[in-house]
Amino acid sequence: MSEEGLQVRPAALADLDVLVRLRVANAEAHLLLDPETYRIPEEAAVRRHFAAVLIEESGQHAVLVAEATGRVVGMVEVLRSRFNRVITGRQ
């Protein structure tokens, strides 16, 4: 997928450092919105999470990164809900 120089691709283990930075930056932004609800996760926990998701091969989860001029500038993570039946009424 490409839109005016933006490339979207599946994340790789080589993206781990930037994924951690992006997740922590996102948490910091949420903390400013509502410090009673949000917190900043420990970087080590975020690193373990992304490492596990990126090596997991069941197809249950996806992490995509957006690149501009060869630099990762954003990410999206899709986690298939364990609560699918509650959300959709189906199993």
If you had to describe this structure to a student in words, what would you say it looks like?
With 91 residues, the protein is α+β, with helices and mostly antiparallel strands. Helix content is 40%, strand content 26%. The protein has 3 helices and 4 strands. A hairpin with a 2-residue loop joins strand 1 and strand 2 (6-10). The protein starts with a strand and ends with a helix.
* First and last CA, distance: 31 Å
- Which structural class do you get from the secondary structure elements? alpha+beta
How does the overall form come out from the CA principal axes? globular
Helix % is: 25-40%
- Low-pLDDT parts are none
Order of helices and strands: EEHHEEH
Q: How do the strands line up in the largest sheet?
A: 1-2-3-4
Provide the residue-averaged pLDDT: 87
Extended strand count: 4
| Strand portion | 25-35%
Secondary structure tally, helices? 3
| Sheet having the most strands | 4 strands, antiparallel
Radius of gyration: 15 Å
Give the key terms.
about 90 residues, globular, four-stranded antiparallel beta sheet, alpha+beta
In short:
This protein is an alpha+beta fold.
What's the topology here?
Layout: E1 2-3, E2 6-10, H1 16-33, H2 43-55, E3 61-68, E4 71-79, H3 84-88
Antiparallel strand pairs: 1-2, 2-3, 3-4
Helix pairs in contact: 1-2
